[in-house]
Amino acid sequence: MALPRPRGDISFSQATVREYPTFPAVSTTPSPIPDAKTLHKRKIFQHRKTPPLHFSVGGRLSSWPAYASAQAILQNRKPCSTTDKTGARDKPSLTVAKPRYLEQLEDYLRKELLLLDMTKDNAEELKLQPYREIFEFFIEDFKTYKPLLSSIKNAYEVALAHFREKIRSLEPLKAMLVTVSEDCNEKILAIRAEEKYEIKMLKKEKLNLLKLIDKKNEEKISLQTQVTNLRKNLAEEYLHFLNERDARKILIADLNELRYQREDMSLAQSPDVSREDPVKLTLALKMARQDLTRTQMELNTMKANFGDVVPRRDFEMQEKKNKALLEMGSTEDIPEFLRTEGFVRNKKLSKKEVVDIIKDVWKERMAEEQKEKTSTLGQFFLSYLQKRFGEASAMDWSYTIFENVRLFHSNEVMKQFHDILTGLVNENVFLDQKELESSLLKELTTADSQNEGSLTLDQFSTVLKTTFPLKTEEQIQELLDMAKDPLEEFDIIYYRLLFAEDEMGVSGPFVHKLWNQAQSEKQAYLLDLETELGANKLAEITPGQLRQALTSIDPSLDEQTLDNYVSQAFKTPIAELDANTLEELEVLLARLKTGTIKRMGPRELEPSS
């Protein structure tokens, strides 16, 4: 008779309950060596009476939950398995309480788990011991399944022992991994520090290379000047030799003419002249020869006396230049700092020395501007030289410096000083540029609360937008591009370096971009003014018309600034300006272009304004 297959919990009918022979647990693999606590538990277990098995009414094993096992049994029965006398089938029993043996095992497990110290490192391993003991209870009580359950238990014990050994073998690797990780972190930090130092050195090298490039550019310009002078001398020598060649050609032509005359005289033997007197012909030939000899002597004398003489037009040109040089005297048409009589001595200054003197002049001039402006730049320049070098040699220094700034226009400091001295540019243009730089630097320093000399990209952008509210987003981005360092890995801007100058007084690209934008804004402003006044540049404009046009394109202008612009345009103080004065538009725009003029606000004010 085949044994029924159990479903769910162990529950059999009275007819199928059978005791099977028990066999000792056989394990093909050695069990792990238990620790002291495990041995103690097993000792207690041997003396402990295991909870007895409880049977339900009717001879069946206790089943719980009742409804689940009852349903499982009913599903496996045949329709006519059990019936009562009335022919009705057995109905499933009502719900039975949890078996006593199960409650004892659960109580035991709960108490054992509460006694464990879960703060230890091997808490999870200790937690397995109560479950192991519960499993041993099942093995001892269910003897029929003892071999199978013992095999299962031994297999899990061997697997656990194997994994414990695996964990123990991996512990050194874990420590080594931590050590290697720390070493790698230290190496990474060292590499970053080294890269930061290399970046710093590369920046210094970049600055040195830029200085070297500027020096080479200056040498290039100096060489170009020498080449220009040599070309000029070569052209003069070429003209000299050209004149010599022309003179020689003339002389050769004269000689040829004489030779032809002599050949003509030799034709006296021809039939046409055969009737002439031979004595007369001989005398004519003798005279011709004498003329030829005299002409040859004169030619040799001319070569000896005038071989090194320049042509007259070259002489007159050089004489004119010399006369112009001798006439920088004491007349009123000569600037104050060049009015002198006699000769002056060239001090032979280097470009660096000239730039240093110019920078010192501007420093003193700006200090005077803060007090009160009482003289022109030319007068102040002469006064400065007299105080520093003495009145006796002041003109020597003045002429030497002016000659340098006149020749070397490649240097922005020299060119700007020359244009202001000669009146090509208003002095206030330079002062406005310096004020523009100082105001921006002041705002950046205020934003730098830690006084570290650096700002983030967002902070720098905010200061630019606050300081220059009329600039477009494109102009702000151009300034940001000039300020950012491509070698800097973070968005940090060292703003103080942007305003630094090299030894020749040349500003950096950021300051140049700031000036160029100011010039572009000035040209756009004058273009708006020209459009407002009309396209005809020859039209005559009154001060009132100019004032109205300025107010129309720039409503934010105050009265004082407006009077200043009108006074600049007409080159007359506002108090002395007549309302009926007329001036051509082209002249007014040219004067404003060389002066200081800029937009004070948007073209159209907001309604709230």
Question: What this model shows, in words?
Answer:
The structure is a single chain. The strands form 2 sheets. Strands 1-2 form a two-stranded antiparallel sheet. A two-stranded antiparallel ribbon has the order 3-4. The model is unreliable at 1-64 and 66-94 (pLDDT under 50). The protein contains 19 helices and 4 strands. Helix 3 packs antiparallel against helix 4 (123-141) and helix 16 (509-533) crosses helix 17 (543-553). It has 609 residues and is mainly α. The protein is elongated. It folds into 5 domains: 1-81 and 89-141, no CATH class; 196-306; 336-425, no CATH class; 426-500, Orthogonal Bundle (Recoverin, domain 1), CATH 1.10.238; 513-609. It has helices spanning 36-47, 66-76, 100-115, 123-141, 146-265, 278-306, 312-326, 351-371, 377-389, 394-407, 412-421, 427-447, 457-467, 473-483, 495-498, 509-533, 543-553, 559-570, 585-594; strands at 455-456, 492-493, 540-541, 583-584.
> Quaternary arrangement of the chains shown?
single chain
Rounded to the nearest angstrom, the radius of gyration is: 58 Å
Main sheet properties: 2 strands, antiparallel
Q: How much helix is in the residues?
A: 55-70%
Structurally, the number of domains stands at 5
Spatial sequence of strands, sheet with the most strands: 1-2
State the secondary-structure class: mainly alpha
- Morphology call: elongated
Low-pLDDT segments: 1-64, 66-94
Number of strands: 4
The topology string of helices and strands comes to HHHHHHHHHHHHEHHEHHEHHEH
Report the portion of residues in β strands.
Answer: under 5%
- Report the average pLDDT across residues: 77
Terminal residue distance = 109 Å
Number of helices: 19
